[in-house]
Amino acid sequence: MTELRVSWEHTFPDDGSKLIVHSNWISNTPATQAYLEALIARVAEMESAPHCVFEKRKAVAPRSLPPDLGTFTSAEFWEVAQKLHLQTTPSLAAARLVLVEGMRPTKAARQLNTSPQALTNTLRKIRTQRASSARLEGPPSTS
User: Fold this and answer.
1) If DSSP codes are grouped into helix, strand and coil, which group holds residue 50?
2) What is the sign of the dihedral through the CA atoms of 78, 83, 84 and 85?
3) Neighbour count for residue 119 (Cβ, 10 Å)
4) Residue 57 contacts residue 2 (beta carbons within 8 Å)
5) Distance CA 97, CA 105 (A)
6) Dist CA 65 CA 111 (whole Å)
7) What are the tens digits of pLDDT across the range 61-116?
8) Architecture of the domain delimited by 74-137
9) What DSSP designation does 139 have?
10) How far apart are the C-alpha atoms of 139 and 131, rounded to whole Å?
């Protein structure tokens, strides 16, 4: 697998404001690389073209992720949080990013400025409650 990284930086001549975009693509196909190279060439042809950097490197295999990443609906998440009487905290918001949006736990903790341990504790409570509720409800009826 190949990781393709593109970084764009453009300063608007009108007011000097900047637009910066970073994008990572992971692909096994030469078509993706060809597409990005063609896109960069087109951008370079633009009048007052943005600064663009293109990097290609071997992709790092992602670590295994928790199996329930992004498996909660928003309503289900808030229902479980309410049952547990969880306070609205950065770790609860980060847990929502993990369980509903599918974000990696380390990224969610960093983004919401909470400790990984606080997030881990919140995730454990929510996962335990969900598992307990599922056991109590039993298998779905087939009537």
Assistant:
1) coil
2) positive
3) 25
4) yes
5) 8
6) 18
7) 556 666 777 788 888 899 999 999 999 999 999 999 999 888 889 999 999 999 99
8) Orthogonal Bundle (1.10)
9) S
10) 13
Domain ranges (residues) in the chain: 2-58, 74-137
Question: According to the model, what pLDDT value does residue 2 have?
Answer: 64
Q: Any bridge partners for residue 2, and if so which?
A: 27, 58
Angle between helices 116-137 and 90-99 (to 10 degrees): 60
The two tokens of residue 103 are 């974000």
Q: How many residues does the chain have?
A: 143
Q: Report which of 114, 126, 107 is spatially closest to residue 90, judged by C-alpha positions.
A: 114
CB contact at 8 A, 50 and 10: yes
> Residue 113 carries which side chain, given as an amino acid letter?
N
Residue bearing the bigger pLDDT, 16 or 97 = 97
